[in-house]
Design goal:
alpha/beta; TIM Barrel; Recoverin, domain 1; 13 helices
């Protein structure tokens, strides 16, 4: 228990006892070892940082900065003129200036596993400056998020007022738009300031095929070699964060016309398998209960953040293949699912491809209650993104622990307020 004084009416001083935690014995022994006459100088502190904290790259200037930061506590009389007292040293050890995991030590985890094995720092409506209804859209909150280490940026893209370009805004609200190209350029400039690990841009797409082609051109020209584009149409397994360092990844739901063409292909494959199965039955009927094909076909139902967030007009199946926007589709490294059927249907794991599923906080709670095991099995290979319910107009947040417990890698949080 230390003693402090304060001046009363600028005339006399009163002394009182300050109830603070006493430094434990180990801290006292370290202070004695790295101090002289009750004072830990800047040189002593520098030696402590290198020898005890194992901060080999720490400089004398770093030690001086710590001492200077503690001068804000001079009203507690715990800082000597030439260095730190035992109380100041104790406050430094357990304060914000001395985090348990020093950024100077780098990443201590194995980063060579598939991306689905990691929790990813994810933002929601990253372009909003405030509430979800009437705030401005800007690239400034995107920059701030990236500087804090956020790795997933969400952009809602819509046609501009003249229908010849693309804006970013929260559709159906009074939010003012910002141009997509401005957001893309800001992401490029600030993506790897805080971390070299990949930045994922999730697009909620409300644009026409013609504008999708324009987005493809914008993204390609802006990011160039930084853009991760897998060679195949779909990934069978996600690459590792280590292999994706300093890459930009696009994730969204493929266009409906592309999915229509894919469904046609899958139906043809099913028909071929069915014909082969029929031929085998005609030769001997050794496998009368073989019914495996349908479960695989059910896994191809892709969806994204909202069940109906595309406004494209579908044409007949014969024309679907020719109308596909190949440049835009090639940009999508992480395909998001289009939800169809029951909850359990789109939690099925497809061994031939990985995907991303988005659920709002309420649908996640239902999935946890009814299909908890399926949810965990899904997140072992695939990405799950959880986002706030639509009634959080004030940009408040939900409890992220529910998603994390069940393996949701992208727990998207509002960071505007």
């Amino acid at each position: 228990m230390s003693k402090q004084t304060y001046r009363v009416c600028f005339c006399f001083r009163r002394r009182f006892k300050l109830h603070v935690a006493e430094p434990p014995g180990e801290v006292k022994r370290l202070f004695v070892q790295y101090s002289e006459n009750g004072t830990m100088t800047v040189d002593h502190l520098h030696r402590f940082l290198v020898e005890v904290q194992k901060e080999e790259r720490a400089t004398r200037e770093d030690a001086q900065a710590i001492v200077d930061s503690l001068r804000e506590l001079k009203h507690l009389n715990i800082l000597h003129r030439k260095g730190l007292s035992i109380e100041a040293f104790f406050r430094y050890l357990f304060g914000d200036m001395n985090p348990p995991l020093s950024p100077d030590h780098g990443v201590g985890h194995d980063m060579d596993a598939p991306l689905s094995h990691y929790f990813i720092y994810t933002g929601h409506n990253s372009y909003l400056t405030g509430n979800q209804i009437s705030s401005n859209c800007s690239d400034v909150p995107i920059i701030k998020a990236l500087e804090r280490g956020v790795r997933v940026i969400e952009l809602d893209i819509w046609p501009n007022s003249s229908k010849d370009n693309i804006d970013v805004l929260h559709g159906g609200t009074l939010t003012t738009p910002v141009e997509l190209i401005k957001c893309l350029r800001s992401i490029k400039e600030h993506a790897f300031v805080a971390s070299e690990y990949p930045v994922i841009i999730t697009l909620e797409d409300h644009i026409t095929p013609e504008l999708q082609a324009k987005v493809a051109e914008m993204v390609t020209q802006t990011y160039g070699d930084m853009l991760f584009c897998p060679g195949s149409e779909v990934l069978k397994e996600f690459p590792s964060p280590e292999s994706l360092k300093k890459h930009i990844i696009i994730s969204t739901k493929p266009p409906k016309k592309y999915l229509e063409a894919q469904e046609i292909k899958e139906k043809e494959i099913k028909q071929q398998k069915s014909k082969a199965s029929t031929d085998e039955e005609a030769w001997g009927k050794e496998l009368p209960e073989l019914k495996g094909g349908d479960s695989v076909a059910g896994d191809s139902n892709d969806s994204d953040e909202e069940d109906n967030n595309h406004e494209e007009v579908l044409h007949d199946g014969d024309k679907a293949q020719s109308d596909v926007m190949p440049g835009y589709v090639r940009l999508i490294a992480i395909h998001a699912m289009r939800r169809k059927g029951e909850l359990k249907d789109y939690l099925r794991v497809n061994p031939d491809k990985v995907t991303r599923l988005s659920l709002n906080e309420q649908k996640l709670e239902k999935a946890v209650a009814a299909h908890g095991k399926d949810l965990i099995r899904f997140t072992q290979r695939n990405l799950l993104r959880v986002f706030p319910k639509s009634t959080r107009f004030d940009s408040s947040n939900y409890n992220p622990m529910i998603g994390w417990r069940y393996g949701a890698q992208m727990v998207a949080l509002n960071m505007q307020v």
